[in-house]
Amino acid sequence: MTTNGLATPGxxxxxxxxxxxxxxxxxxxxxxxxxxxxxxxxxxxxxxVIEVRLEKVVADVGxxxxxxxxxxxxxxxxxxxxxxxxxxxxxxxxxx
Length: 96
Fold this sequence. Notes:
By secondary structure, this protein is mainly alpha-helical. It folds into 2 domains: 1-35; 41-96. It has helices at residues 8-31, 44-95, and strands at residues 2-3, 6-7. It has a two-stranded antiparallel sheet. The longest helix is centred in the C-terminal third of the chain and has 52 residues, at 44-95. It is rod-shaped. The model has no long low-confidence stretch (mean pLDDT 82).
């Protein structure tokens, strides 16, 4: 007996193989779902500690960036003052 060119035993064979494959994959997923992904996988507590440390580093970098921008403006002001003082000293030397 054929159904659209496929014999009934062939149909059931293909269906059985597909069902067995899906069942095997499902059982594999369920049985290994609680295990770490691989033996070198980090534990969740370690990842959380690293995440907290990384957040502290990011905060420190942000703070240091703001300090450096303040220093940049202060150094610019100091250069301007030094330039003005140098000009006044040079004009005093030239006047003598």
